[in-house]
Amino acid sequence: MPRFHCSVPLSAGASLALPGGAARHVQVLRMQPGDALTLFDGAGGEYAATVERMGRSDVSVTVGAHLAVEREAPRAVHLAVGMPANERMDWLVEKATELGVASIQPLATAHGVLRLAGERAEKKRAHWEAIAVAACEQCGRNRVPAIHPVQSFSAWLETQGGPEAPAARLILSLAEGTRSLAGIGVDGQGVTVLSGPEGGLSAAEEQQAIARGFAPVTLGSRVLRAETAALAALVSLAGL
Questions:
Q1: Terminus of the chain with fewer CB atoms < 10 Å: N or C?
Q2: 140: burial class by Cβ within 10 Å (0-12, 13-18, 19+)?
Q3: Going by C-beta distance under 8 Å and a sequence separation of 6 or more, which residues neighbour residue 139?
Q4: Rounded CA separation 171/55 (Å)
């Protein structure tokens, strides 16, 4: 059954016009009045719904029963990533969403190729949010992961360690003698994983993160691409 994210709050029994993005998707699928669909607003669970009216550019639906269905990962994994260039960040956001990431923090780092600031950075964030929404519609998640605004590495690191931060904090490292992620026991329901861009984090950035409480871990003897490394850590830690 088609699934659509609705950016307005849903309630059983309501009749409403779908937001633009969802309405366009319904029209592209050539759905008709009486057809069934599933809606979710990100607040938890999903709703059965029925197409009520098809207009030229608008679609009205009747919202049915709420289903308390969750498809989240057993452990909340928050990825902080030095942004890879070109379409690789898009791919990372899509696949991380499918795999259950709780949030993604894009970082501008010393070795990063992608440089974003101001309006361009906000447009990119909106683009990544749309990718995350589409991935949730496809994979069955009812909670869209948070895509945070782009921050510099140093500014973001200053926010770590507060009372709301996950207790477990890990940094992917290629340094000699680093312990394997597979051998690390992670307590609690949340963990933050810091991963570098294509060129990795600089030595200074890595040391700053370790000083801030991030434990260095390795994924093994092979050197993975930036987006692959972040996803491999996510799968290992999420408890899928």
A1: N
A2: middle
A3: 71, 97, 98
A4: 51
Token readout for 17 is: 């016009």
Q: In 69-88, which positions are buried (b, 16+ CB within 10 angstroms) versus exposed (e)?
A: eeeebebbbbbbbbbbeeeb
| Contact indicator for 193, 235 with CB cutoff of 8 Å | no
CA atoms of 26 and 32, how far apart (whole Å): 9
Per-residue pLDDT of the chain (240 residues; tens, 9 = 90+): 899 999 899 999 999 999 988 999 999 999 999 999 999 999 999 999 999 999 888 899 999 999 999 999 999 999 999 999 889 999 999 999 999 999 999 999 998 888 888 898 899 999 999 999 999 999 999 999 999 999 999 999 999 876 566 678 999 998 888 999 987 777 777 899 999 999 899 999 999 999 999 999 999 889 899 999 999 999 999 986
> What string of DSSP letters covers 208-229?
HHHHTTPEEEE--SS---HHHH
In this prediction the pTM is 0.92
